[in-house]
Amino acid sequence: MRIFKTRALATDACRAGSVTINDLAAKPARDVRPGETVFVRQGLVLRTLQVVGVPRTRVGAKLVAQFCTDLTPPEEFAKAKVEKVQQILAREKGSGRPTKRDRRLLDGLFG
Prior knowledge:
By secondary structure, the protein is of the alpha+beta class. The chain contains three helices and five strands.
C-alpha cells in the first residue's frame, strides 16, 4: 500500500503541508520511526497510517504494506465516493434548469 507513486509526488505533498507526522508538519527528508502516526491528505480523504517498522533498504511497492497499518476509517473513503457522484450531477453555473433530455439522461443513469 504505497501512498504516492513517486518520491517527487511525496516531496510535493510534504511541501504543500498535506503530510503530518504525529500532528507536526513533515519535511520531505524526515525519517519515520516505528510507532509514529502519519496523516496524509489526498483530495477529500485523510489517510491515517501507523508505522510498524522501517525497512533497512528500499523495498518494492508491494512490500511497503508490511511496514505500516492503515487506520483510515471507512467514512473517509465514503466521502470521496459521495463527492464523485456530486461531480457527475453538477451542472455548469448559469446553464439554467435541466431540459427534458437532460432529465431523461439523469433518470437513466440512476433509474
